[in-house]
Amino acid sequence: MSLFGYFRGHRLLQATRPSVTVFGSARFQEGHPAYALGLQLGEHCAKAGYTVVTGGGPGLMEAAARGAKQAQGRTIGFNIDLPREQKPNLYLDHALTFSRFSVRKALLLFEPDACFVLPGGIGTLDELFEALTLVVTGKLRKCPVILINSVYWRPLLQWIQNTVIHERALESSEIDFLHLVDTAEEALTFLKKKC
């Protein structure tokens, strides 16, 4: 499912605005502190009236969708067909599965009101940097990109500041939409101030 799936996903997103996209690890399961954070984030987003859009899989994607469903919210999952880890979770109102990362990411980043980034690995980093690239280059309207969990993300931000910006490969003003918080409550408070 690529072109047909993309148009179907596009229609879903248009019909369920406002929405936020939540990124995070498939490997952090229930019992991990980040899973509890994902539950809280999904709940707060749903209570604020946002559809929660995720990669549709397990781990923190499941946590955000589960939190939203427990708060009677709407959820969409754009899953990816992988040999392990990535099966659609049970908390999705709408789930589409794609074979190509590029199509999936295009939908995950289709005009969200914010991108929330929970702790994650290489896939989460890929999604984070895709969002940053699209906003910095003007291909995605400027929306907050909010990293949640300062212990996890601060070293990355320090590297960006001390290396990338220091070497003038990037201006700090170009990423003024990138923010760091510690709780779901802070993330939503920040989002409401920006909207």
Strand portion: 15-25%
**What best-fitting shape do the alpha-carbon axes yield?**
globular
Largest sheet: 7 strands, parallel
Spans where pLDDT lies below 50 across 5 or more residues: none
Number of discrete helical segments? 7
Mean residue pLDDT? 94
Strand order of the largest sheet: 4-3-2-1-5-6-7
The end-to-end span amounts to 34 Å
The total beta strand count reads 7
Produce a short descriptive summary:
With 195 residues, the chain is an alpha/beta fold. The chain has seven helices and seven strands. Helix 3 links the parallel strand 2 and strand 3.
Which features characterize this protein?
globular, 7 helices, seven-stranded parallel sheet, 195 residues, alpha/beta
Question: Could you describe the 3D structure shown?
Answer:
The chain is α/β, with parallel strands linked by helices and 195 residues long. 46% of the residues lie in helices and 16% in strands. It has seven helices and seven strands; from the N terminus they run αβαβαββαβαβαβα. A seven-stranded parallel β-sheet has the order 4-3-2-1-5-6-7, sandwiched between helices. Strand 5, helix 5 and strand 6 form a beta-alpha-beta unit. It is globular and about 45 Å long.
Strand and helix map with partners:
Layout: H1 3-15, E1 19-23, H2 33-47, E2 51-54, H3 60-70, E3 75-80, E4 94-98, H4 101-108, E5 115-117, H5 122-136, E6 145-148, H6 150-165, E7 178-181, H7 184-194
Parallel strand pairs: 1-2, 1-5, 2-3, 3-4, 5-6, 6-7
Helix pairs in contact: 1-4, 2-3, 2-7
